Amino acid sequence: LFSAKESVYKAWFPLTGSWLDFAEADIEILVDPGAASRGRLRVELLVPGPVVGGRRRDVLEGRWTVRDGLVATSVVVPHT
Q: Which segments of 1-80 are extended strands (E)?
């Protein structure tokens, strides 16, 4: 979960220039069907999200995977 929250912050900070506390985002971890070691992240920001491409982004999406004992996560902010 820490890796996922860190990915949210890394997407958030360049857009806002402000701190995002761990308690200000809820993350839902979804497992891909038939693949227990990878899936999606759905992030609901509990504070007003950044405005990108003229739209406020209060929900972000991401991916996660576990391989060779490592966890990798990413969060993407659409620009359109």
A: 25-32, 35-45, 51-52, 55-56, 59-67, 70-76
CA distance 22 to 51: 20
**pLDDT (tens digit, 9 = 90+) per residue, 4-62?**
999 999 999 999 999 999 899 999 999 999 998 999 999 999 999 999 999 999 999 99
Verdict on whether the full-model pTM lies above 0.85 = yes
Q: Which two tokens stand for residue 76?
A: 């993407």
Domains in the chain, CATH or no CATH each: 2-76 (3.30.200)
Q: Which residue's structure tokens are 């990915």?
A: 7
End-to-end CA distance of the chain: 28
Encode 2-17: b = buried (16+ Cβ within 10 Å), e = exposed: eebbebbeebbeeeee
